[in-house]
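Comment thread on ticket #2218

A.B. wrote:
> Attaching the input chain for the structure job we discussed in standup.
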Amino acid sequence: MNANPTAERRTSSLAGRLNEAQPYALGLFRIVVGLLFACHGAASLFGVLGGSTVPAGTWPGWYAAVIQLVAGGLVLAGLGTRSAAFLASGSMAYAYFVVHQPESLFPLQNGGETPALFCWSFALLVFTGPGALALDRLFGSRGGAGTTPRKTGGYREEQGASQVAA
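C.D. wrote:
> Ran it. Output below, let me know if you need it in another format.
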């Protein structure tokens, strides 16, 4: 028991506010990560944003750029988020282990920080879903697994992931 009930109320109130903002923070995270990933693809495919173009059809660079542009755009819009994030995460795992990791073990030494961060960011989106402000919510809510929050046995389930209710 807390000796100061005012401090306890303030803490639970802050936790409640943070929990209410969680879908919006996740949506903003999804938008930023999707935009950055799509920009990588656009730079490689079209030479924009200071990038140099990759010759069409070359393995693996051109295919990676197409995945970056398409999957990044889908994640940005929140359309087919989990599938697009799964594909993007796998492509970044491939990039890390095939291109960067043979040079050295650690990302800081082998220049693989960006693929590692993208890989884990997209893996997170596979499990959390798109958050707020996603087109998935407009088009895909017909019986989708856990698209609306619901209370069950002390847990709040949203986007298919369980969290302890505050």
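A.B. wrote:
> Thanks. Noting for the ticket: The first strand starts at residue 150 and ends at 152.
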